[in-house]
Structures are given as C-alpha cells and as structure tokens.
Amino acid sequence: MANHELSKAEWLDKAEGYCARAEHCAADVRRKLYEWQAPADFADGIVESLYSNDFLNDARFCHAYVHDKVEYQSWGRLKIQAGLRALDLPEKDIREALDNIDNAVYTKNLRALIASRKNDSEDKRLRFLLQRGFTYEEIKKCR
Fold this sequence. Notes:
Shape: elongated
Number of strands: 0
Strand content: under 5%
C-alpha cells in the first residue's frame, strides 16, 4: 500500500510510534509527516491527537532537549534557547527548562571547553565559546 493511501488512523498510529521511540515536538512530527508524504490536511488533527494522548508534551520536550544539549553537546544557554525558540515552543516551557540546568555540569562543561582550546588565541577561544551559546559573563567567571 502506498503512503498516500493510508487512512488518518493509520497515519496517527505511525506518528504515535515515532513519538513513542523518543521525545519529539510538534515541529518534528509535522516534518516527519511531510517526509512520509502524509496528506497535508491530516497534520493538524494528528498533532492535536498526539497532544491529547500525551505523546507530545512541550514542557517534557524542552526538559529533554536542554538536558541532552548540556550533557552531550556542551551547549550554552543562549544556543539552547535559540534552538528551542526555532521549534516554536512556548516561552514559559523554555524558561522553566533552562532554569533547571544543573549548574555544576554546566560549569564543568564550560571549563572543559576552555581547557580544550588552551592553544588558541584569547580572541579565537572567546569567539568559539560565544558561538557555543555561553555568555561573556559566564566565560569570564570560568577563566
């Protein structure tokens, strides 16, 4: 059966499976439905259903996103915030997730990044850290 021949319920099942495997946001689901070539008029109803059945939860997604970006990619608050805003998530959920960053891990990551760039010039190191989303004040405290 070709993708375009699936019913709305079958598309919903497919989207639920996608959401059950990992934390996603509405933008991710819409992008995936587009990639799967689902009929465009199904997307809003599917996303709404995913929210109502708790397959999608903006606050939960924000917390997972923030955790992963701090823990595994050593991003700073500004870059994380920009990434979440690009996904059109509620500002309240973004702020709450950013407020729950483990400051010990965050500072350890920043210090490790500074140490990894010890051979760079001061300007080059500063530019690198700013691009990673750390504020000038945070960088200055850790030098």
